[in-house]
Every structure is written in C-alpha cells, then in structure tokens.
C-alpha cells in the first residue's frame, strides 16, 4: 500500500489504528504473496523468480518504511502533547481531568507493533527469495 498522501494525525487513535491495519495488508498476505511469487516446477522457465521476489521485497520495504514514518510521527505528536500536559499538571496538581488526559496520552502509542511485524515478514521474504 502506498503511503497516505497527507500528514497523518494520531489525535483520533482509533482512526490511526485503522490506518495501520490497512497498511499491514501486505504483511497479512505474505504467505499468499510468496506462493504467487515463487514459481512452481511447471512455471520455472516462464517467470523470473529472482526479479519478482526482488519486487515483492521492495514492496514490503516500502510499506514498512511508510508505517515506521507514520508511527514515529505519531509518537512525536503524542510526546509533545504529553510534555504540554505535564507542564500544565505541575501548575494544577489537583486537576483530576488533566491527570486522566495525561495518562490517556501516555498510553496511547507504542512502537512495539512495528518491530514485531517488521522482522517476521522481512525475514520470511529474505529466506524464501
């Protein structure tokens, strides 16, 4: 999947998660992609397996780079909000609503998702091709 054309905001976390889910389509279909990329014995001479495998690998890398960029952008946005909320919290320590908002922002984004998906699919493609 191509990268979204406009800047992505992670303010609406559900929307951000949906965007990542859609961007993971290539990862979710990796077995199918490998099966259709690597020719069977009857098609060995008709398909350049090396070239199609290289194209699949490049497609995976582009998808992962896009996801990584979006995730890092969201982490930066959220970090900025957290910093502002911490500063406000220091001035208004009795503000319960502010504390809840701060906690919500602190737990909003985790980059672990990216590392988990990156290694599995890239290793699989590299091993098969």
TrEMBL record:
<comment type="similarity">
    <text>Belongs to the MIX23 family.</text>
</comment>
<dbReference type="GO" id="GO:0005758">
    <property type="term" value="C:mitochondrial intermembrane space"/>
</dbReference>
<protein>
    <recommendedName>
        <fullName>Protein MIX23</fullName>
    </recommendedName>
</protein>
<feature type="coiled-coil region">
    <location>
        <begin position="75"/>
        <end position="105"/>
    </location>
</feature>
<dbReference type="InterPro" id="IPR019171">
    <property type="entry name" value="MIX23"/>
</dbReference>
<dbReference type="Pfam" id="PF09774">
    <property type="entry name" value="MIX23"/>
</dbReference>
<keyword id="KW-0175">Coiled coil</keyword>
């Amino acid at each position: 999947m191509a990268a979204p054309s406009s800047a992505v905001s992670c303010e609406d976390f559900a929307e951000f998660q949906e965007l990542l889910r859609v961007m993971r389509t290539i990862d979710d279909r990796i077995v199918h992609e490998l099966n259709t990329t690597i020719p069977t014995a009857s098609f060995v001479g008709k398909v350049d397996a090396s070239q199609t495998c290289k194209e699949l690998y490049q497609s995976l890398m582009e998808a992962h780079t896009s996801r990584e960029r979006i995730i890092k952008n969201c982490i930066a946005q959220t970090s900025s909000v957290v910093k502002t909320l911490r500063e406000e919290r220091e001035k208004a320590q009795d503000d319960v609503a502010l504390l809840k908002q701060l906690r919500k922002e602190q737990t909003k984004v985790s980059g672990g998702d990216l590392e988990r998906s990156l290694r599995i699919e890239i290793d699989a493609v590299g091993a098969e091709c």
